[in-house]
Amino acid sequence: MAVRLLSHELSDLCLGKPALRSLSVTSTIAEALEVLKTSDDNFVSVWSCDHKAKTSSGFESAAGFCDNYDDDDCRCVGKVCMVDVICYLCKDENLVSPSVALKEPVSVLLPKIPGLVLHVEPSCSLLKAIDLILEGAQNLVVPIKTKLSNKRKQHQKPSPTVTVHKGREFCWLTQEDVIRFLLSSIGLFSPVPAISIDTLGIISSEILTIEYHSPASAAIGAISRTLVDQTSVAVVDSEGCLIGEISPFTLACCDETVAAAVKTLSSGDLMAYIDCGGPPEDLVRVVSSRLKERNLNGMLEHFSMSMSCGGFSSSSSDEESMAASPLPRSGRYSRSMSYSARMVRRAEAIVCHPKSSLVAVMIQAISHRVNYVWVIEDDCSLVGIVTFSDMLKVFREHLETIA
Questions:
Q1: Of 242, 213, 239, nearest to 349 (Cα)?
Q2: In terms of Cα–Cα distance, which of 45, 233, 3, 239 is closest to 140?
Q3: Which residues are registered as beta bridge partners of 352?
């Protein structure tokens, strides 16, 4: 059984994965917003293609079909999500005139960190994929092995945002995909999965926090960092107890006008703003008033238009995807579902105890679609965080012993 696990290639993990939706690196941020708002995925891939892709009629393809290409010419160079746009619009100069800021190329949103997105072959081994992730890769771009038939290609209208080269589509794999795959063979790692995360030594104390009453704008840099680290910003009280979080996952299910709330509200109020079925009317008035006081008329106009158009809609997701572990102390701030047309979860911080087993924490994270779980004591004092990356290190070491 162990040998079979080690023999798996990434193509085995790609079964059923959807083809990537994509943007050209020269697309505008406004165009990226349109794709993000209609996508089932929180992220959209960004591609750089130096050649001119031609359709059968000889015209350049606008749909991402590249029939004549060199692999080295066409590469996924990164990914963007709504959080990138929100943090970008939080800059003072962009708040003054968001309409101008949104005309900039999407490339300005890409983090200047190499290796976050990597191309790999379908034959890449599971062990190699884990090593790449532990070295910092967030997404592994993999060609989907099944080629489109010529007949299908002739009659199928391609999506304007799906990347297809030489009849081949691409998908990508994440830390979550690998963890899910390992969980399906969890018995091979016995007794490690039953050991507590405290005993395994995988609780990290390197966390980003902000006090409940502090301005949310003070967390903008931390939000950008947690997006790269695939974690979250903990919101704590004056005693260091966990109240909630400002999560990139939750923000990714909002729209770009949340930048106005980030710049004008406290951290506690921001949690209430983004975690309801729609932002509370009193907080909407506060945001509008403070934008006006600061003469941020460009964002005020954009914000008011979004509110009047009903830019925040409740999700109709299933209960399982929205349930979360409430904090085990009465008096904590209760919040309902985030506003989104896509699958989201309730935004209470997902928590565990230092004595929780590794497999229990894995299941918690996977069921709530997050890459981490906060670790707290019985009194809600924050101990640290456990991430998928921490878990993968444990499994990688165990795989060494059976290789």
A1: 242
A2: 45
A3: 375
Of 104, 106, 41, nearest to 342 by C-alpha is 41
Per the listing, tokens 């008035």 go with 285
Do you find a cis peptide bond into 191, omega within 30 degrees of 0?
Answer: yes
- Strands of 208-211's sheet, edge to edge? 208-211, 233-236, 242-246
Of the candidates 312, 368, 320, the one whose C-alpha atom is nearest the C-alpha of residue 37 is 312
* E strand residue ranges, 4-103: 22-24, 43-49, 65-66, 74-81
Residue 389 CB contacts under 8 Å (≥ 6 apart), including other chains: 133, 134, 175, 230, 371
Order of all β-strands in the sheet with 74-81: 22-24, 43-49, 74-81
Backbone φ, ψ for residue 24 (5° rounding): -75, 150
Distance (Å, whole) CA 336 – CA 350 = 14
Q: How many whole angstroms separate alpha carbon 1 and alpha carbon 71?
A: 36
Q: Cβ(18)–Cβ(159) under 8 Å?
A: no
* Spatial distance between the Cα atoms of 295 and 309, rounded to a whole number of angstroms: 23
Structure tokens of 256?
Answer: 């770009």
- Take residue 233 and report the two structure tokens written for it: 């910003």
Q: What are phi and psi of 284, to 5 degrees?
A: -60, -45
Per-residue three-class SS string for 177-231? HHHHHHHCCHHHHCCHHHCEHHHHCCCECCCEEEECCCEHHHHHHHHHHHHHHCC
- pLDDT truncated to tens, each residue of the chain (403 aa)? 555 676 788 999 998 899 998 899 999 999 999 999 988 888 999 999 864 443 333 323 333 434 433 455 788 999 999 999 999 999 999 999 999 999 999 999 999 898 999 999 999 999 999 999 999 999 999 998 765 434 444 444 445 555 565 567 899 999 999 999 999 999 989 999 999 999 999 999 999 999 999 999 999 999 999 999 999 999 999 999 999 999 998 999 899 999 999 999 999 999 999 986 678 999 999 999 999 999 999 999 999 998 887 544 433 333 333 333 334 332 223 323 333 333 344 457 999 999 999 999 999 999 999 999 999 999 999 999 999 999 999 999 988 776 5
Grouping H, G, I as helix, E, B as strand and the rest as coil, residue 330 is coil
